[in-house]
Amino acid sequence: IPVPVRIEHENLRAQGQEFLWNAAENTFRFEGPERQRVEVASAEKTPGFIEAHTITIERSISKVTLAGEARARIYLASDPGKYGELSDQPMSWTLDAKTIEANIDFESDPVLLKSVRGSGGITLAQAENALEFRGEVFLWDVAQQRLSLTSDDGQGLQTFHRGTSPKDEVVAREVVLVRTTKPGEASSERLEALLSSVLSAVIHLEGDRREAPGKVDLRSDELLLVLREDSDDPAIRAHEALAWGSVDLRGGPYRILSERARILARNRTVELTGSPRQQVQVFRDGVSSLPPSRSVKLTQSTRGYRVESLPSAGGWSLREIESSLGRMGRLDRRPTP
């Protein structure tokens, strides 16, 4: 069939340079030196699309494969069981990979997308809010509305970036991403990311935008990032970061070892808590500067960094954390009470 090729069927549009149909194997293929495109249009929502040098549709095994500079639009909704492109306010992401495979139920009416898996040079970006994840293997569980990045052997590195200047950055072994709705009268959407086996994290303390931000560096077993989406402001803002398990945090001249840490970027504070077996230890320029205590607070201001002991640290809701980890399918990662 000569190029270009365009196919339209109800809300489905496809365009490519060559179209091949294998009737015996019930296989369709778009291919060519440039990107081929398949788009699912909607009058109300931004259309979903997939692009690649080769797009192969295998109806007999319910699979669509994209190869060669593959790209797809991924949706993330806050309600499990709903499909992103059909939910009220889905958040769209752009997925780039060497290869993308989609598991599709062609027998349902309408056709349903069940999962998407990407591999090789993964980039998952939300350009409107300067959010970007990079990794080795990507999985979108559509029914659970859950995104994850990992590696085949579990030892690869996944990275997260937020913002432009300054830029938050986290390097971890695994990432799981969901959206949740915080209950209550003033309910708001929250984007939550669990990063496991955190090798390094740089989180900026924003505070007053007229002042230069501070920052903390940390390592931990787990790090739960909570980004809030306010209904009256489309921008996603840092709400809090919760770290637990062998927390090693540095801020200014201080190094603090603890079991848990709660980072409130907009307040320029970090609350750190020990465990029954290990109290919080504070070092300044390598020398112990405070007696071991149950809790301490690190504060950053124009005068620099300050550390003080606290009788206890609040703000931790194990119920909310367990609710988030349940959505992520990672309850085994919850902090000890």
Walk me through this protein's architecture.
The chain has 337 residues and is mostly beta strands. The protein has 2 domains: 156 residues, Sandwich (lipopolysaccharide transport protein A fold); 164 residues, lipopolysaccharide transport protein A fold, CATH 2.60.450. Strands 9-10-13-14-12-11 form a 6-stranded antiparallel barrel. Strand 8 and strand 9 form a beta hairpin.
- Here the CATH topology of the largest domain equals lipopolysaccharide transport protein A fold
Q: Write down how many β-strands occur, each being a DSSP E stretch of 2 or more residues.
A: 22
How does the overall form come out from the CA principal axes?
elongated
**In this structure, how is the largest beta sheet organized?**
6 strands, antiparallel, barrel
Secondary-structure content class: mainly beta
Q: Helices and strands, in N-to-C order?
A: EEEEEEEEEEEEEEEEEEEEEEH
Q: Kindly state the mean pLDDT as a whole number?
A: 84
Strand content: over 45%
In total, how many domains does the architecture comprise? 2
Please count the helical segments. Answer: 1
CATH architecture of the largest domain: Sandwich
What Rg, in angstroms, do the CA atoms define? 23 Å
The portion of residues assigned to helices is under 10%
Strand adjacency order, main sheet: 9-10-13-14-12-11
Terminal CA distance = 65 Å
Task: Indicate the CATH class of the largest domain.
Answer: Mainly Beta
